[in-house]
Description:
The protein has 117 residues and is mainly alpha-helical. It has helices at 4-29, 34-56, 68-90, 93-98, 103-116.
Amino acid sequence: xxxxxxxxxxxxxxxxxNDYRRAAKFLKKHPRTDKLEADxxxxxxxxxxxxxxxxxxxxxxxxxxQSKEERLLDNIRYNEQMVSDTEKxxxxxxxxxxxxxxxxWLLMRLKKEMEVD
Length: 117
């Protein structure tokens, strides 16, 4: 039976692996593209223009919802950050204190797993 600290360490590592897999799968399905970024930039410029026009006319501010493309780009950015953070974790000193597993080996294994999916 694992002691509580080993169980906690295993839980942290398992969560990081799950987070990495989920984020990498999302990015594989929804890659960042120049077209998406250009669409979002154009939409944000249009929103800014509408806000400025409302301000000139002293109209009340209106809360604008994010577009589908803006939400997608936000999700892509979030998942890119998750991949980056978990990769750093697997290669960190803290990871090596939590387990005897080689973090570089684990990361390479996860990347190979993502190539197959």
